[in-house]
Every structure is written in C-alpha cells, then in structure tokens.
Amino acid sequence: MNRSLENLTKRKATGGRSRPSRGRRAYERDGYAIEPLIGEAESRPSRRRGGSVSSGVVFCDVANVSDAKGKGTKSKILRVKKSPANRDYERRGVITRGAVIETEAGEAVVTSRPADDGVVNAVLTKSR
C-alpha cells in the first residue's frame, strides 16, 4: 500500500509543487490492516524496528479463555456475537479487542489484540 506522506508532498504558497528533499523511510511504510477471522490457525509475521519480528493472527479457531478465578483453558471459538469496534465486524466475524465471542466454554470478551499479539485471549462473562 503506497500512502502519500503529508510533509513530502506539500505545495508551495504559489500553488507550485514542492520537491521532496528525501525519499521514504522504512518506518514510514504502511500496510493493510490484519482483520483476524475464525478459521484454521494462520498468522502473518511482520518486521519491526530493530529487526525484531512480531506475528499477527489472520485466522484463529481457539482462544485462551480465563474464568473469574483466573483459571485458563483453550476453547474453540464458535462465532463473534458482538463487536464494539465496528458493527460490520459482527457480520463478517472479525475478532478484535473488546469483541464478545461465543466459545465452547461460554460467552467471553477478547482482552488481547489478535492482529498485534498473535494470540486470542479472552475472559468469560457467562459460562455454559
């Protein structure tokens, strides 16, 4: 994705084009947002500053679900019930932080950021 950089493409007061004094930097690069969906587990690695690599979830079928006492178990994700981030995400089944998901253990709220953390962590709200 090639997004224009604001300060590199400014115009002069006369309306003429201002030539950029430098090119783009690696840290100015932009990519498409990862929208984690329910499906067979798949993640996408991305290079960060300093050469470290992080991975984001592209598809996920299990979540690490914690109960009120803090005991965690792996549970299969059945569907996305509600998403406060975007109403369209509910219909499409996109998993985001704060989304209410239905799991085999019960209804849970996602506490991690799957696109950034590479894992789906959730806390039970109602158990089955």
Question: Your description of this structure?
Answer:
There is one protein chain. This protein is mainly beta and 128 residues long. The chain has helices at 87-92, 114-117, and strands at residues 37-38, 42-47, 53-60, 62-66, 72-82, 100-103, 106-110, 121-127. The model has no long low-confidence stretch (mean pLDDT 88).
Summarize this, please?
With about 130 residues, the protein is mainly β. About 10% of the residues lie in helices and about 40% in strands. It has a single domain (about 35-125), classed as Structural Genomics Hypothetical 15.5 Kd Protein In mrcA-pckA Intergenic Region, Chain A (Roll), CATH 3.10.290.70.
Placed side by side, the strands forming the largest sheet appear as 4-5-6-7-8
Enumerate the spans where pLDDT stays under 50 for 5 or more consecutive residues.
none
> How far apart are the termini?
44 Å
Q: What is the CATH topology descriptor?
A: Structural Genomics Hypothetical 15.5 Kd Protein In mrcA-pckA Intergenic Region, Chain A
User: Given this structure, which CATH class is correct?
Assistant: Alpha Beta
Mean pLDDT: 88
Helical content band: under 10%
Based on helices, strands and strand pairing, what is the structural class? mainly beta
Radius of gyration: 20 Å
The helix tally amounts to 2
H and E order? EEEEEHEEHE
The figure for the number of domains is 1
> Hey, roughly how much beta strand do the residues contain?
35-45%
| CATH architecture identity | Roll
The tally of beta strands, per DSSP, is 8
Shape: elongated
For the biggest sheet, the summary is: 5 strands, mixed, barrel
